[in-house]
Amino acid sequence: MKIRTKIMLLFAILTVSIISVMCFFVYYLATQYSFEDFYKRLEIRAYLTATAAFPPVGTDTLAYNYIRDKHLEKLPSENEYILRILPGNKIEAHHYIGLQPEFYQAVIREGRETFRNGDRFYEGILYTSGENSYIVIVSAVNEYMSQYMTDLRRILLTCLTVALALIIGTGLFFSRYILMPVHRIIDRVKDISSSNLHLRVEAHGGNDEIRELADTFNNMLDRLEMAFETQNNFVSNASHELSTPLTAIIGEAELALSKERDCLSYRAAVSNMLREAERLEHITRSLLHLAQTGFDGKKESWDMVRTDELLFAVKHVIDRITPDNKVEIDYSLFPEEEEKMNVLGSFQLLELALSNIVSNAVKYSSNRPVSLALAATNSKNIIIVRDLGIGIPVPDLPYIFSPFFRASNTQPFKGYGIGLPLTKNIIRMHKGEIIVNSRMGEGTEIRVELPSA
């Protein structure tokens, strides 16, 4: 079932339910009013009957009877009863009326009482004439109510039927109108494929859910377009980086085999091939690490890692790779509580990720001082690496985590553009963030935030 139909049905059911409840209350209140109105008629009849039977001194009985017969409408199946009250509140019953003794006692006690038996209504009043008291009872069949309620039911049902038709029509119109922007978005998205990812969804109107939906689609298309571009760049750069050492190895081998050479020439050719093979092995291993860290890490068995020990291990690795480095650990931000310096993860992977960052800081700062700091809160551990290097050009910042991408000012430095993408994947596996701030010619600050254990 389409959403448009669901909206129409929900709107119709809700509205019809509200109208039905209102009709029920109208019918109920009309019924109660009809009862009260008929009882009031019977009460007037009862007082006129009593006054006509026992007129006050100086009044004319004929006048009451004339008013009752000429100006009051005769009620259907009307009956009148006058019962004298004997001593002890006993009733002198000359006629069988079919009322319970409680009815008479209620009239004596309250002065008025009503009773209903099907369509026949009874009204009893207490009337005193001289030294005697009487119970005057008037009964009639309420045929007016039956006809009135029948007409009311017919009117309410007719109105409900017309309202239902109008509600369904209005619901269809408004559901179509409300969902029209969604249909435009659907038609636009159907036109977008891998060959035209530059297209975007347009949403007209205010700041509503449709605008939010369009923005969400556009953000998704931005990510897809960047992913496609990254993939294309990765394939192009990977093929280039892999083909270069292979070409050198093949060339050296062909040159060595082209004619007889002396031992030193063969050794030089084999050395060149070994150097290019090591380069190829390094690129291949880096690509393998990069592919392995593309998983979400759910199957990894994480351990408790002390971030201060992690920093010391990274410093040890850098000292071994670059003995004359000027990396210094800044202890000023270290937390006093040791339990705050715990994260869940893989010590080896985090060591690899941070070693890549610090190694880049040492390399691109030409071995100038590099600061390695640690701060911790209740929710996260923050590792900060600052250098005084060449910095990263602003246009290159969005692409520094793309495989094989190298900033435009890094040509004098050796590298393959795999370290930062590998670091990004490792930090992402640990549900962390990596934030880069850089100024050309002034240096770079990289902040790694990991959730505390």
TrEMBL record:
Residues 176-229 form the HAMP domain. Gene3D superfamilies: 1.10.287.130, 6.10.340.10, Histidine kinase-like ATPase, C-terminal domain. Keywords: ATP-binding, Cell membrane, Kinase, Membrane, Nucleotide-binding, Phosphoprotein, Transferase, Transmembrane, Transmembrane helix, Two-component regulatory system. GO terms for molecular function: ATP binding; phosphorelay sensor kinase activity. Coiled coil: none annotated. It comes from the Bacteria. CDD domains: HAMP (cd06225), HisKA (cd00082). The chain crosses the membrane at residues 7-30, 155-179. This is histidine kinase. It comes from Chitinophaga niabensis.
